[in-house]
Amino acid sequence: MSGLAATPRSTVPGGCGELAVLRERGRREVFCGLAGIIWLHRKIQDAFFLVVGSRTCAHLMQSAAGVMIFAEPRFGTAIIEERDLAGLADVNAELDRVVTRLLERRSDIRLLFLVGSCPSEVIKLDLSRAAERLDQLQAGRGVRVLSYSGSGLETTFTQGEDACLAALVPELPAEAPDAPPSLLVVGALADVVEDQFSRLFADLGIDSVRFLPARHADEMPPVGPSTRVLMAQPFVSDTVRALEQRGAKRLTAPFPFGAEGTTAWLAAAAEAFNVDPERFRTVTALGQERAKRAMSRYRDQLEGKRIFFFPDSQLEVPLARMLSRELGMRLTEVGTPYLHRQNLAAELALLPADVVLSEGQHVENQLDRCRAQKPDLVVCGLGLANPLEAEGLTTKWSIELVFSPIHGYEQAGDLAEVFARPLMRRARLEV
Amino acid sequence: MQLTVWTYEGPPHIGAMRVATAMEGLHYVLHAPQGDTYADLLFTMIERRSKRPPVSYSTFQARDLGADTAELFQETAREAYERFKPQALLVGSSCTAELIQDDPGGLARALNLPIPVVQLDLPSYQRKEIWGAAETFYQLVRALCAPHAPKPGEPRPAGAAGAKPRCNLLGPTALGFRHRDDVVEITRLLGELGIEVAVTAPLGATPADVARLGEADFNVVLYPETAGQAAGWLKRTFGQPFTTVVPIGYGATRDFINEVAQLAGVDPSPVLSGVRSRLPWYSRSVDSTYLTGKRVFIFADGTHAVAAARIAAEEFGFTVVGLGTYAREFAREVREAAKRYDVEPLITDDYLEVEAKVAEAHPDLVLGTQMERHIAKRLGIPCAVISAPVHVQDFPARYAPQMGFEGANVIFDTWVHPLMMGLEEHLLTMFRKDSEFHDAPSHLGGALPSAAGAETDASLPGSEAVSLNAESAPSSPTSTTLPASLTWVPEAEKELRKIPFFVRGKARRNTERFALERGVSIITVDTLYDAKAHFGR
């Protein structure tokens, strides 16, 4: 066997015990970073995402994203055509024309992202320079133009959000050097979740809390040495690194999934802001209790069940931690497209020592392992879910974990239900 | 560079995947970066297939560029052969791989696999999905059938005496609009005529089956979009004639029967005399009187658009007010048809242009694709889907062909139901004040614009399920921009709301147009009825 067939395997020492990591390189079955546009365009309400790419990119956006959104979305594709490939100067002129037409049509747009794709990267179209040029051209209209890459050559699925947020960081206003400490929560959350967290932080006495991305282009948070960064999503590592370069300090915490994860996440902030432990207990007690009560409803269905994760969103490790510790599920393989040891340090420490982590993917080999394991529940992408169901496995397609509010105390029960539902369904069907 | 929000067709390699996925025993090795694997979910989620498409992607990444992408492709091809043991291999590039100019055909041939390897050159920056499907099927047919071709000038061997005439069914693919059921219906129809189907391809065929295509007496081209080119080559190479009528609609099915009967040398009259479709009777029934002259806008792939226009005009008594296609390859056919119905043909792949034309035409019914379903919903017009691209709900569990006599029945139901819903909505709206109908449930889902609420003519809330994610439809305001010079007096506004919602937008636009044209700035109840008298209906 050679090359793809022989996957290099290595065991890397874990943070707590020896966590075996199976590093895989081969055929993947994941979305590219362009897919992040689907939730980002809803989150930043006056932004437009213009993919500079091929017909494939446009097709991906509407197929993968749900053709059903029948209002005109705030994203589109500038499709590169044969004549654009003839000369690069021409492409830039074309891009200017397309952007001008777009902004004339959509006067509500305040922030325009030029989003790089595989083809634009291969033809070395410099979108950052194009963005600078267009930014100057469009300054009169009050439109900022930025760029990032969502290409499948560079990014998988949720990494597109990281690239987008990282592109915002240099644009963020500077926080005054003598400003009191402020908290910056990084990673797009549903508005309702943001509001829940805001109330909790306020109850803890942490007043200055901001979110990246903000809901509007002109509300993006300031950053500086007094900024404390709390990651809400495990995949925003480039963004956090860029924030650190602007002086911000990163707080290490598990991610806010389940009662335990949410409490630990809030605790990291509370500690950084010197919140009195008694106050912390008082403020979080009700939420913890509600989350545990909501989750307990699903514990019977999930306890002891074996779960297998295909890599999709980088949410796999925190979710596996939550499922194993709070719902009693048994982890077989936990796949992640990319394992960021520093960001996940607190999570990895909480995983059972015998878990198999896999990073990257060779989808055929992973399918073989999955079939051999015969797990009770498989978490996978949309391309694999129905074929696995047809083979008799029970699946939870991972996309819901990215599109639904799953963070925090009030969503803990919903999150458990996401995993319990396929099992309940299978138990219920008699045909 | 073309700015697009929605697109009717994917890139050409998606067309190739539709052919590969339709077949058995074939594997497609696609040189592509990881993101291109999204295409799998078209088949597993939208078409709800239970198997993964038989496609292996080479999944190259940035770090592979300029180093070993070619080697990566070869490894993928070798591994795919070893794992799946296909009878034949398709190899090609997606848009990104096309730019890095590896040569999948040469690379695969260098592996010396013991099976036929068919190289696909699908120029992504010029061509689209339908062309890609046609080209893939053509290349496959050529590669697999050529070894069995008779020498030039050699006549077709005569069939055995007394043997049934045999034909192939060409064109059905994966992700096609009702292809699965059309094949069943047409196979049965041909059976009634005493004609045997030798091979159906690509849907359900193996490469070995495709290699036998030349043995049949003639070809039935079900979908000229995908099979036209291959049928032409088979005619030149094997002397097989092929059908030109697509049996969609009652009249077209009868024409088709006559055409195949002639090609097969059988008598069509027993089949033609048996009454098999309810469409002619349903169209004549008194209930259908309200269909008379309903103005219908048609936009689809070439074949379905042309067929729908004929059905609409001849079999429903509709008036065709718009006819178009996104498939430029079929522009000629659609232009010719448009001439017959005296409408301006609309050949475009820009859905915004289609939307503008639909709004301008004020049709009673839109027959189109998934895109037109969006457009019609925005404009509050009933709609039926007649062509790809489609949505998961257009792959129904029940038997629902479009072709043949049963297809005509299905089409009758599919087109009439949205209009009936319109009629019922009308009644619900009329009786809304009646206590019995208070808060009457609506067929259209979502909330009807309430009489008291601010109503805009393009904001019917849609409740259609968002397909692949849990988001709800965004509530972007789509209020019409009232010319600054126009004002509706409250009484006129109130009167307007009494008009059924599905013609209300049209009434509003007509009234405003009427007012503007006459320099009237205050719209009163009289203006409303003056305009109604002027425009009719």
UniProtKB/TrEMBL annotation, chain A:
<dbReference type="GO" id="GO:0019685">
    <property type="term" value="P:photosynthesis, dark reaction"/>
</dbReference>
<feature type="binding site">
    <location>
        <position position="118"/>
    </location>
    <ligand>
        <name>[4Fe-4S] cluster</name>
    </ligand>
</feature>
<keyword id="KW-0077">Bacteriochlorophyll biosynthesis</keyword>
<dbReference type="GO" id="GO:0051539">
    <property type="term" value="F:4 iron, 4 sulfur cluster binding"/>
</dbReference>
<keyword id="KW-0408">Iron</keyword>
<dbReference type="GO" id="GO:0016730">
    <property type="term" value="F:oxidoreductase activity, acting on iron-sulfur proteins as donors"/>
</dbReference>
<keyword id="KW-0560">Oxidoreductase</keyword>
<comment type="pathway">
    <text>Porphyrin-containing compound metabolism; bacteriochlorophyll biosynthesis (light-independent).</text>
</comment>
<comment type="similarity">
    <text>Belongs to the BchN/ChlN family.</text>
</comment>
<keyword id="KW-0004">4Fe-4S</keyword>
<keyword id="KW-0411">Iron-sulfur</keyword>
<protein>
    <recommendedName>
        <fullName>Light-independent protochlorophyllide reductase subunit N</fullName>
        <ecNumber>1.3.7.7</ecNumber>
    </recommendedName>
</protein>
<dbReference type="InterPro" id="IPR005970">
    <property type="entry name" value="Protochl_reductN"/>
</dbReference>
<dbReference type="GO" id="GO:0046872">
    <property type="term" value="F:metal ion binding"/>
</dbReference>
<dbReference type="GO" id="GO:0016636">
    <property type="term" value="F:oxidoreductase activity, acting on the CH-CH group of donors, iron-sulfur protein as acceptor"/>
</dbReference>
<comment type="function">
    <text>Component of the dark-operative protochlorophyllide reductase (DPOR) that uses Mg-ATP and reduced ferredoxin to reduce ring D of protochlorophyllide (Pchlide) to form chlorophyllide a (Chlide). This reaction is light-independent. The NB-protein (BchN-BchB) is the catalytic component of the complex.</text>
</comment>
<keyword id="KW-0067">ATP-binding</keyword>
<dbReference type="GO" id="GO:0005524">
    <property type="term" value="F:ATP binding"/>
</dbReference>
<dbReference type="InterPro" id="IPR050293">
    <property type="entry name" value="LIPOR_BchN/ChlN"/>
</dbReference>
<feature type="domain" description="Nitrogenase/oxidoreductase component 1">
    <location>
        <begin position="32"/>
        <end position="423"/>
    </location>
</feature>
<dbReference type="GO" id="GO:0036070">
    <property type="term" value="P:light-independent bacteriochlorophyll biosynthetic process"/>
</dbReference>
<dbReference type="InterPro" id="IPR000510">
    <property type="entry name" value="Nase/OxRdtase_comp1"/>
</dbReference>
Automatic annotation (TrEMBL), chain B:
<comment type="pathway">
    <text>Porphyrin-containing compound metabolism; bacteriochlorophyll biosynthesis (light-independent).</text>
</comment>
<comment type="subunit">
    <text>Protochlorophyllide reductase is composed of three subunits; BchL, BchN and BchB. Forms a heterotetramer of two BchB and two BchN subunits.</text>
</comment>
<dbReference type="GO" id="GO:0036070">
    <property type="term" value="P:light-independent bacteriochlorophyll biosynthetic process"/>
</dbReference>
<feature type="compositionally biased region" description="Low complexity">
    <location>
        <begin position="472"/>
        <end position="483"/>
    </location>
</feature>
<keyword id="KW-0408">Iron</keyword>
<dbReference type="GO" id="GO:0005524">
    <property type="term" value="F:ATP binding"/>
</dbReference>
<dbReference type="InterPro" id="IPR042298">
    <property type="entry name" value="P-CP_red_C"/>
</dbReference>
<dbReference type="InterPro" id="IPR050152">
    <property type="entry name" value="ChlB/BchB/BchZ"/>
</dbReference>
<keyword id="KW-0547">Nucleotide-binding</keyword>
<feature type="domain" description="Light-independent protochlorophyllide reductase subunit B-like C-terminal">
    <location>
        <begin position="488"/>
        <end position="532"/>
    </location>
</feature>
<keyword id="KW-0004">4Fe-4S</keyword>
<dbReference type="InterPro" id="IPR005969">
    <property type="entry name" value="Protochl_reductB"/>
</dbReference>
<keyword id="KW-0149">Chlorophyll biosynthesis</keyword>
<dbReference type="Pfam" id="PF00148">
    <property type="entry name" value="Oxidored_nitro"/>
</dbReference>
<comment type="function">
    <text>Component of the dark-operative protochlorophyllide reductase (DPOR) that uses Mg-ATP and reduced ferredoxin to reduce ring D of protochlorophyllide (Pchlide) to form chlorophyllide a (Chlide). This reaction is light-independent. The NB-protein (BchN-BchB) is the catalytic component of the complex.</text>
</comment>
<feature type="domain" description="Nitrogenase/oxidoreductase component 1">
    <location>
        <begin position="12"/>
        <end position="419"/>
    </location>
</feature>
<keyword id="KW-0602">Photosynthesis</keyword>
<feature type="binding site">
    <location>
        <position position="36"/>
    </location>
    <ligand>
        <name>[4Fe-4S] cluster</name>
    </ligand>
</feature>
<dbReference type="GO" id="GO:0016730">
    <property type="term" value="F:oxidoreductase activity, acting on iron-sulfur proteins as donors"/>
</dbReference>
<keyword id="KW-0479">Metal-binding</keyword>
<feature type="binding site">
    <location>
        <begin position="422"/>
        <end position="423"/>
    </location>
    <ligand>
        <name>substrate</name>
    </ligand>
</feature>
<dbReference type="GO" id="GO:0016636">
    <property type="term" value="F:oxidoreductase activity, acting on the CH-CH group of donors, iron-sulfur protein as acceptor"/>
</dbReference>
